[in-house]
Design a protein that fits this description.
zinc ion binding, binds 2'-deoxy-5-(hydroxymethyl)cytidine 5'-(dihydrogen phosphate), binds zinc ion, 29% helix, Cytidine Deaminase, domain 2, alpha/beta, 5 helices
């Protein structure tokens, strides 16, 4: 029997792009928080992706993955060294302008990433978790994003399970 009707259970744009962000985060070596990001053009083309990790040349095996407060030694914690997924996605883009684009990210952007998001011309953020809501970094981030007119809203999970065998 030939099938002539269009498939109806295809994934939505939001599921697709948030799914790509989640998949990208799976490359992260961070033992506690893995974050992924995907930047999309106004006509739904993926422009860039990123996840949190150390910059090129800074070995994942030599630089520390711990948290500052565990050792009370900031040089031996990840925070000075890890590049956030959103910044990596912005920096990974070599194609020109990100003006008017949309960012899908699994965790709400911090104040430092908010600056890069605003300056690169990203106009919309779709985020997953907001687990650091209320912290100074997120408060400052929201203040800047609001002032700059960057729209943000939380992704609403659909509950669809997507299994991929690799
Ligand atoms: N929006 C974000 N994007 C990110 O890529 N990160 C990264 C930086 C660290 O590698 C990790 C946070 O570590 P932790 O404090 O939850 O153990 O996630 C963190 C945030 C939060 O602002
Ligand atoms: Zn950040």
């Amino acid at each position: 029997m030939s099938v002539t009707e269009k498939r109806e259970d295809y994934i939505t744009w939001d599921e697709y792009f948030m799914g790509v962000a989640i998949l990208s985060g799976k490359r992260s070596k961070d033992p506690s928080t893995q974050v992924g990001a995907c930047i999309v053009s106004q006509d739904n083309k993926i422009l860039s992706m990123g996840y949190n990790g150390f910059p090129k040349g800074c070995s994942d095996d030599e630089f520390p993955w711990g948290k500052e407060h565990e050792k009370d030694d900031p040089y031996n914690a990840k925070y000075f060294y890890s590049t956030h997924s959103e910044l990596n996605a912005i920096l990974n883009y070599r194609g020109g302008s990100l003006e008017g684009s949309k960012l899908y990210v699994t965790l709400f952007p911090c104040n430092e990433c908010a600056k890069a998001i605003i300056q690169s011309g990203i106009k919309t953020i779709v985020y997953g978790s907001d687990k650091y809501d209320g912290t100074p970094a997120v408060n400052a981030s929201k203040r800047m994003l609001n002032a700059a007119g960057v729209r943000y809203y939380q992704y609403q999970p659909t509950g669809r399970k997507i299994e991929i065998e690799v």
